[in-house]
Fold these 2 entries.
Entry 1:
Amino acid sequence: MAGPGNEAIISVRDLVVGFGETPVLNGVSLDVMRGEILGFVGASGMGKSVLMRTIIGLLPRRAGRVAVFGVDFDGLSEDARRALERRWGVLFQQGALFSSLTVRQNVQFPMREHLRLSYRLMDEIAAAKLEMVGLTPEVGDKYPAELSGGMIKRVALARALALDPEIVFLDEPTSGLDPIGAGEFDLLIKTLQHTLGLTVFMVTHDLDSLHAVCDRIAVLADRKVITAGPMAAMLASDHPWVKAYFRGKRSRANGAAGTA
Amino acid sequence: MDGSLLEVSVKDGRLALAAGGAWTADHANDLEQLVEAAIQRSPQATSVNIDMGRVERLDTFGAWLLERLVRGFAAAGRETKVVDLPEHYRELVAEAEHVNRAEISPVRAPLVPTLVAALRRGGLALGDDFLQFVQMLGAVSVAGARCLMRPWTFRFTSTIHHLDRVGFRAVPIIFLITLLLGGIIAQQGLFHFRRFGIEIYVIDMVGILVLRELGVVMVAMMVAGRSASSYTAELGSMKMREEIDALRTMGFDPLEILILPRIVALVLALPALAFIGAMTALLGAALVCWLTADMSPEIFLARLRDAITVDDFIVGMIKAPFIALMIGVVASVEGLNVEGSAESLGLHTTASVVKSIFLVVVIDGLFAVFFAAVGM
């Protein structure tokens, strides 16, 4: 729909989150603009998922401010909170599909709970969502345990998109997929982002994803977001970790793609 | 219903539809009804014009309902045009044109299965259960025999760990429950026997009942609830996370590593717990007799010595290891039958406890028949 705008749809200021003695995140500030795909990188175990889970309210914070859609969640009533939560979708790393429901029921679950729709319309919309994420409607009758890793991610994405959210949070969407599957998934995210006008917050390790789909990249190191900007800025950065990450052995800048 | 979402008018044999407002998930229910009503309107009008110019927002729900509207008119052979669709929604609407082309027929199983089918399935499942039980019993025996021949392969640490969990940690709750149970039986006995003036026989009743039957059966049921469930849940979630497959691929026998230590621990723990349970129940009975009927502990003990024999004690205790073996086997079978879903884990854990408790009673009954036949 519209290109990346100048309006911050998620705004994090001086965030401190910790378990026990040591803070995992200390003074994190980050803006996500409406309509952009933000890739969020950082070393394993350094708190990328922690930031995502804090933004969506799964983890408590010690200090700082998190505003989504311009609203800070702290002062909100339960109802207002729920209304806001409907406006985002989350794709968990392992899919987090409800194992006792079929794929169709999984995708319909948020609709069933939040909207009052006829069965016919729910079936049609669920089939439409499954087709949009590149699956055939027949998958709808299967149970999550019968699906491959790539299919689980797609179904989970369909469920995250069930209510047509404005933001989707993706936690390592391409991990565990083969390069072709990962490439298709990247393309899918890009396409959906374009058609549905989504804002995408993507935690990832996949350099190809970062190159292919992300408008901006934010880097988490030393418990802070040390830099955020487009790929070109990352490649030009002098920070040792950023250098190692984007210009290391496995990066494109150093490989065949660097000449492309 | 908000009619301004879709206004319908007829002009010179043409159907003019004007869409407006938010065509989004929140209004999908109203929209669906408006769309269905519009498709039925003025069947004589051969051409339809859908003006999307005033639509403020459109999401997948709206795009699909627009597509359904268009398909509905197209199916009736009416010429349909969509005009003034805002530029940035074109892609989404185009996407909706591809979906739901294939006929979907969700497989919905009948909610109430027929009685015959249910009976048949129940019968087959019963047969299956029995076979799996025998199979597991055989496999455990083989694994046990192998460990006897090569004792160094037996997992002592693991066995001790499970002994602690199913045995030692069960002592407080078993102590409490059997103490109360013994007291309650004695109190009921006193109440009824008092009418005949034979209060002293309460001690006979409690002694025989507790030592021969109740001590071991009650404790076995508690252990079935406590440990069969945890065994099934542990093995089941290991199965779900492919840990059992991992063991197999590394050349280990999950039976030897996971199941044998658990069953051995149970077989050792249950007789000990049954002994503790029986003694505590007697203690509870003695306390009640002392406090409510003025029978001093000395009288209680003296009478108990006359009332019971060592046979009674043996009859009770000898059942315990067999019952434990059975609980362990059932819990393991159920654990390994868990499939991918959380629901399956719950079902099998329930089944494990229910079957264990049922079999405790069955085995106790078989032993009763056996001991009656041999005159013990």
Entry 2:
Amino acid sequence: MIMTGARIIIETLIEQGCDTVFGYPGGQVLNIYDELYLHSDQINHILTAHEQGAAHAADGYARATGKTGVVIATSGPGATNLVTGIANAYLDSVPMVAITGNVPTSLMGRDSFQEADIMGITMSITKHNYIVKDVSDLADIIREAFMIASSGRPGPVLIDVPKDVQLGECEFLPKGKVAGKKMPAVSDEGLKTAAEMIAAAKKPYIYCGGGVVASGAEAELLELCEKMDAPVGCSMMGLSAIPADHKMMLGMQGMHGHFVSSKAKSQADLILAIGVRFSDRATGNKSVYAQNAKIIHIDADAAELNKNIPVKLGLVGDVKDALQRLLPLIGQASHPEWHEQIGEWKKKQAEFRTKLGAFSPKDIVETVSRYAATDAVIATDVGQHQMWAAQYYPFKSKRSWITSGGLGTMGFGMGAAIGAIVGSGKEGILFTGDGSFGMNLNEMATAVSQNLPLTIVLFNNGVLGMVRQWQTLFYDKRYAQTTLARKTDFVKLAEAFGATAFRAVDQTSLEEALEQAKKTDGPVLIDCVICEDEFVLPMTPPGGSINEIITERVDS
Amino acid sequence: MSSFAIALRVSNQFGVLTRVSGMFSRRGFNIDSLTVSNTEDPRVSRMTLVCQGDETVKKQIIKQLSKIHDVLEIQEMTPDICVSRELLLIKVAINGNTRQEIMDAASVFRGKIIDYSPHSFCIEMTGETNKVDAYVELMKPFGIMEMCRTGIVALERGENCLKNYAYHTGEEIA
């Protein structure tokens, strides 16, 4: 059947299993939006307040569902507004397809109105990107984009479609959903060597990352840690891969990880690192990193092996497949002495004095979790609140943790929460701070218009808390531009957007607000007023080791 | 730090050179030379890169390059299994005293004088990098007015071809 390029985009999206897109219309995507209008029964379009919000929503959608998120924006500023969202998805390996309109090919390169070289701009933050110059290539390019985005180590792909290509016509032949590119499997010898190393270990430690979530290997991870009798520490991206209350789970490790998790990692004789990339936030000082351990690294991306940390054994392939084939090769182990030692560290950890104000961030996170559905999706922005959520939220279900790990994007949370709720159909919680929330709070409008079951828990301390913490510790309390001195009334603000809002200043008012929120239809904001000098603890200073870990406040 | 050469077969798409060179600038790797050309297949171009780095850097470069969608095959071109050449064009100042000596040197190095003016020679020479280096060194005292080198192109010896090369999975045992 002969179709226009714009129609082909929609038909191919439907063919690839896409039922929801996020976006914002504009001059060079009018034809695509016309087709979206005509096919609104097949594709649900979520209009955001800003293209950045749409990109983060597609990202949140993908994290919560495992499906490829799709975002559409117009040329020029529409396209450049996607850039942070694309970079965010790239650093956290999130499958995403971004479709941008562009000026007609005849006007390209002439600095035409709303023209930007989005292919050049996004080249280093996408797995691959395209400008479609011929409408007859369009359908196959979209199919290939979905294949690339979801295969191997997932990531974003951008397709720039000039207006004349949207208008052009050609024959469209339906082909069905493309299969992901098959990854080479981890070799049998590699797995055998891994099993031998695991059998020889006395103090094993499993370091679990986002790759476990990406490959859906949560069940295999559980079986593995029980069989190895090995504690599990997560990178921030690996949280929610294993229930927080599981007996083997030590919590997050790294710069703001739990003491016991980082300590056990530093003392382990074997680290089985699964789907991680040894980021500087996780390793600290590389020259003394895990000195006592032999490291086995399993990852989908060969380039991650020995990139940041030299490993003893590096295996490349699908993590789920690798773990499934590794499990029968290892016997049931028991390491009572190791666990006894870990128990000692846990006791020590429990004694750390970390609280400052009476209304503590830890209590807020834990209280919110008691009121939340067990399968709720938990989104965050970036900063102290993000770390508190990562440390204290008792994750129970997989793909429930939606956070900006690699890029650390303040302003990620609102869009991401919207996308995650829309995609999963579950209720959502956004932990945010007054700094981050200020960046993209315009998406309140989207949450209200979609009437989403979203509870926004705003840690309001009037400062950029994480930066302030560094200024306190490393810059002699010179608080350069981190004291906000704003007079924003977040309750009124939320109400102005059409949401319901409460203020919480202590445990009682927080519980009342959460009680009310449960009965409320649509988005709710709870403005939690906390002390400006709360710290995220423990903290391993940047480039430091476990020996320099700061576990308690010293200044108060 | 040592120098090594890598050959790539890449899709003949616009932007592919930027994708490859962009990987180097983004990750802070250095390129000594880079050549791109057509191949026997119009859909495919071939690049030869010469880079500096230790074994770890070399592995990272090869793995990061092989992640680029448009990179089809990739192989290190080690001197023991490859033939490699580069082309030098060099303009050297001449006078009555040096003219003959420069001509003799060109002939020893199998260079060819391809332009001759009252005050200069332009000489063409091909060879492996170290030969070209030696010749450039030899010409320095005479006064090099300007020069350019193509960077190396390389092919594997024997019947094996890059397009038949299966990239290994990347497993590593220390």
